[in-house]
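The passage that follows is intended for readers who have already worked through the single-chain material. We present the inputs for a multi-component assembly, then the predicted structure in tokenized form, and finally a short commentary. You are encouraged to pause after the input and sketch how you expect the pieces to fit together before reading on.
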Amino acid sequence: MHPRLTRRSLLSLTALTGAVGLVGCGKSPAPPVTSGSVASPNSTPVQYWTFFQDKKNEDYFREHFVKAYSGPAPVEITVKSTDTIDRLIQTALAAGKGPDVVLTPGPSYVPAYDKAGYLAELDAYAKKFGWDTKFAGWSLQASQIDGKLISLPASYESMAFYFSPEVLDKEGLKPPTNRGEFENFCDTALGKGKIPLAAGNADWKAANEWHITVFLDHYAGPKAVYSALQGETAWTDPIFVEAISLLKGYFQKGYFGGSVSSYFTNTFPTVYKQLATGQAFGMISGTWEMANLPTYFADGGSGSGTNWGWTTCPSFHTDVPTDVWDLGIGASIALNAKSPNLGGAADYLNFLTTDTKTITAAIEAVSMQPPPVKLSTADFTAKADERIRRLYTELPKAQNIGYTTWTFYPQQTETYMIQEFEKVITNKTSVQDYCAGINDQFKKEKAAGKVPVAPKPAGLGG
Amino acid sequence: MSAQPTRAQSQAVSLVRRRPLQVRLRDLRVSGWLFLTPLILLNAVVVLIPSIESVAYSFTDWTGLGAATFIGLDNYTKMFGNSDFQSALVHNVIWTAFFLVVPMTLGLFGAYALLRIKRFAVAFRTIYFVPYIVASVVNASIWRVLLSPDMGLGRLLGINFLGETRWAFFSVMIVNTWAWWGFLLVMFLAAMQSVNPSLYEAAEIDGASSTRQFFSITLPSIRPTLMFLGLMTIIWSFLTFDYVYILTQGGPAGSTELLSTLLYREAFTNLRAGYASAIGVIMALISAAAVVSYLWVRHAKDWEM
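Having made your guess, compare it with the prediction:
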């Protein structure tokens, strides 16, 4: 006779485990921490999970942002992979754990974390540390949810047009400033058997939104985009349909990456090499590339011997100014509501984002993307790369600003724009349907209050 | 002195004999449960509870963060009306059909050929099996370079295998087949080696050709293995993720999207964990349907495993 599991005992076991599972499913979120007053720091080490593009950046960060920090509590960093850090942080927060200082993908994603009750409110700390005098106003506005400051911008950026001055001189070309010049630039490249703009999304599907951002801001224009972000203009408006149609046409002409199929398989190293070797005449990408390009150009020692230059992206419509800066926040940092040392974490957050001396030194040493704190030419030393110094001294004074999809659009609208765009350029979806899809998604998120606050398109002053 | 035990003695002996048996049986039951407990607990924690939670979450709007709100069958109605889901499901069906035919056929004929050669048989078996034991990320990365339009096959043939929507899905299936068929070959070879050699000898005496021997002796003899691998192919096809994700991430334009990559994208990129759970439930139901069909066929045909 064999001992056996009876059907009843198995059912009992199933019911027990099922009950445990369902109990877990029905949990309520932790209530958000309301910080009417600041928490006092204690000596519990502050935990920060982050990622780095390379070892050089990691070593620099450890030396200057961890060891050099002399706050009330020591800081311990945990390095995660770029691909998985968001998922790991989300899982840890859901378990009531995670780092004290929480890195998020940017303002689009913060509402989801906030709604779950994972993040502490920062208004009291903003007052204590005087963040309103240190940060650009628009960046703090974009970091608010329902009028409360929930995160701080960790880095800011814009889209740019990159080129090699030597290559363009040789070809008798200049960086385009308007649609006519842009088309001439690209057609000249194609005529010479070259790639007009180095581009590819094999390593990062979200690269699609860089181009969408540029065409919405530089064809439809900041005013139209701002109006749509306020819910006053539909995304199905002809101006947006025209912008996406123009971009689609350029893709299908081979302006981006040489062909649509090449765009899907070009990796970042391929893209940089094409630009550095003159195989491609230009590149439209974010200002974060200023940290990546030196390796492939003369600056990096092992590069092609040419230099790189940048300017703002061209205007594609006569009504849009030629110097629109597409504002973006690359990442946002917040505080874990369940941190055992909220005061200590806030102090470190303040150091990380507002210590201008450490920040400018990092820009000069490793081309770090700074938070949108107010920097002037005087903050930089003579060692600073002129191209990078120009960016961070001109961008804060921008007279015309545009809106990046990863900063000012709600999260699900943004992911829809990225994912469905491939169907547009492969003729699987019409531009009209694509814009209608954006509109439907946006309306839902607008109604749910998930659209980040955008500054008016008038400019940043300065 | 009588050798016959008294009734009282018999009862006493009987009790002595019966008690150890009951104790032994009870011990067996206890020890059986003891052996099973770690496995049951592990399965409950790793499989059962998450499975039940997934079913529960599939009826909610859970984002993967914070609380979930019950929304009834919304996720399921949206899913069946969603073109991305329909397209991924069709891709999965094509994928399954392809893997039931191409790698299985390659494995069968490869094993049959290896069975008949004496020299280098072990070397060939090893060569064919190696791709299976190499990490999928390594295999996929190698193939990504091989299929690149800038070098290798892509450049030679002037085709962007992973960049063109009409080629990408087929290319990914070929890469996965390359890594997979060696495993099938080894499994089939092991099954074929257990076939009674006298059957082949008798067939040869009767003048049966190799082809005839394959269809009349080999195939019927390895039917349990064939059926089992067919069933597992169906289940694994609906779980395939790694090669697609590494090579194309479901692109370009969704042309290589499978249910598993769609599920991943919905859960971790779009933050729609409730909807992703509903996709997972459907995937599990499809696999369950395959298993039930297989068991039913086996029962109806009275096949032995």
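Commentary: The mean pLDDT of chain B is 89. Chain B has two domains: 1-57, 74-301. How closely did your sketch match?
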